[in-house]
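User: Hey, quick favor. My workstation is busy. Could you predict this chain's structure for me?
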Amino acid sequence: MNIADLRKSYEKAELSESASHADPVQQFDRWLQEAISSEVPEPNAMTVATVGPDLRPSTRVVLIKGFDTQGIVWYTNYASRKGRELAGNPFAALQFHWVELERVVRIEGVVERVSDAESDAYFKSRPLDSRIGAWASPQSDVIDSRAVLVANAARFGAQFLLNPPRPPHWGGYRLKAERWEFWQGRKSRLHDRLRYTTQADGTWLRERLAP
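Assistant: No problem, here it is.
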């Protein structure tokens, strides 16, 4: 099959100014809850895009762990490639793609680390094997084989038993949104796109974009 011939008509819903929330955080909450209730696969999965010192962008998929008016939160290894890139350039973009609902949400803004207290609290809530894994994986580093990870996990498991502390190189990030875009697929490729941009007075400007 020629991939250029793969097409789909988007006809499940629409996104109008009158039906959308004036606050993008509230609109995101509405769509996220609908994605969860619709049982789409991993509704909490999002792509994170960062830019390195060579100005080359890179992406990876992580899981959202919280959001409010202060921003979008996820947790990872600070020494990973994305951690190093965020240390040099704190601007990033996020994207959610709920294929079954024919919806995409894009968010752009500046990223900062969450507090140690927030990272500690979330780390303690993780399953034991995930906490050990945070110690075992030198994320983004080259390793000889999977045996390195298995050996590291065994070593740290024996060292920390049931109470591994949060590694100093692991914790949370918060993207403080400056721009949101909500995309709803529509028939004939005339998709709905609403963009929210933060204003100097703290309010949001909502605009429709051509698809």
